[in-house]
Amino acid sequence: MSSLSSFSPPPLTTSSSSTTQQRRSCVRRSFRGGACVSLSSITVSCSTKEPKVVVTRERGKNGKLINALVRHGIDSLELPLIQHMHLPDLDRLTSLLTEATFDWIIITSPEAGKVFLDAWKAAGTPSVRVGVVGSGTASIFDEAVQSSKQYLDMAFAPSKATGKVLALELPKNGNDKCTVLYPASAKASTDIEEGLSGRGFEVTRLNTYTTAPVNHVDQYLLELALSVPVVTVASPSALRVWANLTASRQWDNAVACIGETTASAAKKLGFRNIYHPTSPGLEGWVSSVLEALEVHEQVQKV
């Protein structure tokens, strides 16, 4: 098996039917013959196995999941469904970290963590105390903690990895004023600030980024993805894109969600075969994928 087992060529930049046919032929060979083919700007690293899982995060952010699945002998098809875009509050985040101090910084997603770390470094790495929603988010800080432990205190994670539980359990210094900086996606719920404000925290929320559907989904890759047993999703935004893409199809394969929040969104959108770990994180996510594949194989044998 090739060391690169995810097939993820960039979108076509030409509408030429001959190029499309060449690419379709290449895609078929990539899952059957193990060849490596280069078509102008399209380079395909081919595996000898057909993919069993679709990974849908933004391009370049699926590597950890892909590699974890490879260790179980599972190949993936990369089909990014969303893209992240920074918002004006990001500049304000850097300014606040430079000019003010907060009792807590609350981070509830890996993307929010990456955006925060960039702003934190731009602000000169001031001393901060961070609370995260779960281990998946906490892992974003591993490298920064190793190099700047005296300035970056990873001090809290709730007993259950949800925003509501975090808001209930975040430590507060008695009746003293306690300030929280909450940089988040513009699409994140209000559970955090409402829960903390209700307990007497003073919360400053900044919408530092948002998510949007990708500008283009390659139609042939989509056709391949529709036949793959499991689609992985890491956010309600990605789910909504997938729901739109499959609205006119009779698609009923498995959705493996990163956590409970995304799984709840999947249920509301009408998906039926939903799998998710109790606590968000890569290990639990992979276990959910394996469970979904096991059920799929059992159904196929019936």
UniProtKB/TrEMBL annotation:
Q: Where is this region: Disordered?
A: 1-24
Which pathway is this protein assigned to? Answer: Porphyrin-containing compound metabolism; protoporphyrin-IX biosynthesis; coproporphyrinogen-III from 5-aminolevulinate: step 3/4
Compositional bias (Low complexity) at which positions? 1-20
User: What's the EC number here?
Assistant: 4.2.1.75
Q: Name one Pfam family in it.
A: HEM4
| Catalytic activity from the UniProt record | hydroxymethylbilane = uroporphyrinogen III + H2O
Alphabetically sorted, this entry's keywords are: Lyase, Porphyrin biosynthesis
Domain Tetrapyrrole biosynthesis uroporphyrinogen III synthase: residue ranges = 65-286
Function, as annotated, reads:
Catalyzes cyclization of the linear tetrapyrrole, hydroxymethylbilane, to the macrocyclic uroporphyrinogen III.
The family annotation for this protein states: Belongs to the uroporphyrinogen-III synthase family.
For this entry, the protein name equals Uroporphyrinogen-III synthase
